[in-house]
Design a protein that fits this description.
This protein has 2 helices and 3 strands, in the order αβββα. A hairpin with a 4-residue loop joins strand 2 and strand 3. Helix 1 packs antiparallel against helix 2. By secondary structure, it is of the alpha+beta class. Strands 1-2-3 form a 3-stranded antiparallel beta sheet. It is rod-shaped and about 70 Å long.
Length: 103
Amino acid sequence: MFQNFDFSKMGEMLAQAQQKAQELQEASEAKEFGAKSGGGLVSVKANGKGEILDISIDDSLLEDKESMQILLISAINDVLKMVNDDKQTMAANLMGGLGDFKL
């Protein structure tokens, strides 16, 4: 299984993997995600860290607290799912790319 593998290069391979992981994390954190609910009555933006950046609520919802809460929860859950899915994709790309390191 390890017949042609040079174990003396393991440290270099680990350093390359860590560098690639850092680059992917920084790229992911710089992304912005947006979700809407209620046909756009509520919109939420988040960054790749999962921090909410902006919330927009249509004025028509200000008199209907219950509907506003439901739509807000829906939009927040959707945008946080987008962030989580992006993190999972990033991790899968990193793990899939480990075989690409040249030593």
